[in-house]
Every structure is written in structure tokens, then in C-alpha cells.
Amino acid sequence: MRRQTVPWWRLRPYLQLCTIVLLHLHSTAAADVLPENPSAARFKSTSMWELVTESEPLDVSAAGSQIQCSLLCLRWPDCAAANFRPEPSGGGTCTLLSTQVGTSVEVAETGAVMLRLPGTCRMLRNLHYHTDGVYRHRGLAAPLYCDMTLNGGGWTLLTAAVSNEGWTAQYVIERRRDTPGIDIDYSIVGLGDWLKSTRLSSRPFKYRIEVGGRQRWGGIWSAPSAYSLASSYSNQTEGVELMEMFDSWGPLSIHTPQHIVPWVNTRAVLEGYPLLSTTSELEGQWWGTLVTAYTGHGVSPWILSAETELFNGARLYWLRE
Ligand SMILES: *[C@@H]1O[C@H](CO)[C@@H](O)[C@H](O)[C@H]1NC(C)=O
Predict the structure, then answer these.
(1) CATH classification (class only), 8-117
(2) What's the pTM value of the predicted model, to 2 decimals?
(3) Which residues, if any, are the signal sequence (predicted)?
(4) CB-defined site of ligand 1, < 6 Å
(5) Distance set, CA 300 to CA 71, 257, 275, 292 (Å)
């Protein structure tokens, strides 16, 4: 007799039925904004993959179904992700993880399913959160300010610079981490690589820069996934592409931003003036700078020809991983 195994895609309708567990959300101000300590959260299966992290799992136990596994994760205070691997005999193994960052293994044949709490604004956006503002959730590494509307939404605010006061390279890495906002000096560049690594594919990431107004004097760039958001070198330039320009500040010159992933000047090159910058450290100029403590250029020297217009106004730096 010929034995046949069920192809994984036959399980798909069943899995899809189970993939989304929506639990009641108590919201604070806006309907889409998560409360600080939610008693419930949304889970969504992202794929037929299993998440493998370096850290020890919080718990490994038997569960009757994927939904039961996700409920176990919900009840576990530090759980941010869960793998459910069904057993042929029914039920399955439920592994709870404290982090959603890791590598993934395709386990399509066994129908294993990975559940993750949203870790970034893009993930929240994919779960249909559409309101701009601060999101707080235990699956997030920190409260995040999300732009859910412009340029397709799903943008996580990395840095807002509204002044040149008090900035240091260390503050670019982290400043006012717990109170994100687009109208204060704030930065979580140090979390950038974590946010980026929540995505399991090696597709390029995007960053957006707005200067002197929303969707003004900056643009959207795409960069290879291996590039670090916390690099202290200005050499992450190969493969960086400007996808969209806000206002017309091109073509590139020493007086414009460069197609270089903003780097953090922890080495104090260029006399330590640029702190977060797209400029090349080899040019001797430092236009294209988002954050500085120098007081001679308003908030920061960004584009020379538009300098008067851009003297003040927020510099906003966003990531969509
Ligand atoms: C940039 O330079 C640093 C220091 O020399 C080096 O470690 C790094 O690999 C370089 N990165 C790229 C993208 O060239």
C-alpha cells in the first residue's frame, strides 16, 4: 500500500483559520494606541516558520493547538514570541520565547507556526494599527513613536532633533528613550539594529528623513539589510539608493545630504561637530547632518542652498525595516 503524507499546503486553510487570535484591547486615548500594560494583545502568525533565538526558551510545554500556545504566551509576562509545532498524534509542542529577534527555520512540512508580538511600527501597522503616535507594548523593546499614515505608514521614529542643545554621540544612541515624540530631542538609534533584525528576510530596509516639516527637504532611502544603523563610519554607501526626494535639493553636492546611512560620530571625526550625519567624513564639510551640538547652523547644517529655510525645524529620522 502506498502511504501518502499530507502536503503542508493542505494544512493551510486550517492554519489560516487559527492564525489570528484577536483579543480584546483596552485602549487609552486613541483606539489604536496600546495601553502601557496591556492585559491582552494581538497575535498573528507571520509565516510557516519557526523562530530560533540564542537565548533559552522561557518554557517548552505541550499545547492542544496554536491558539492555546499563543494564550500561554499571553499569560507569560515576558513572552514575546511562540513557536507551535504540531505533533502527528494531535496537539503539539509550544515553545515560548522572550524575544522575537532571531533566525528562522522553515518547517513547512511539519506545519509549525511562529507567533510574534509586534516589535516595530511596521509590524503594528500590519496588524491594522493606523493611528500615529506612541505605542507601548511588552513586545516592543521600548515605547515607539509610529507614523502609520505617511508614505504607506509603518515608520518607527529613530531620532527627532528640534535643537542643538545637549546633544552628544551617546545621546544619539539613546536620548529620552521612554518618552518618544516628534517635537522633542529624542533618539533610539541604538535600538535601530534590533528593530531591523525583527524582520527575518534580508530584504533592504528603508529610512526616511524629514527636515523642516513633514515630507520636506529629505527623502526615503533604501539600504542593504546588513548595514548597521549605529555605525560610526561614513562608509555605508554602496547599495544605498534614494527612492523618493522631498522637495528638490538634488543633485548631490558637498552642500547636500549624501546617500550614506546616517552614522553616529562616536570617534569624534570632523572635530566632533556632526553627531548623526549622512555626510562623508572624507569631504571636510558636514552638510547633511541631522544632529549636532554646534550652535552656528541652527538645529543642524542640512542643505546649504535651503539653509535659511532649514535653519530651524525638526530633523526626523525614521526606519521601516
Ligand atoms: C567601514 O569601515 C569600518 C572600519 O574600517 C569597517 O570595519 C567596515 O567593515 C566598513 N564597512 C563597509 C560597509 O565598508
Answers:
(1) alpha beta
(2) 0.81
(3) 1-30
(4) 233, 235-236
(5) 48, 12, 10, 6
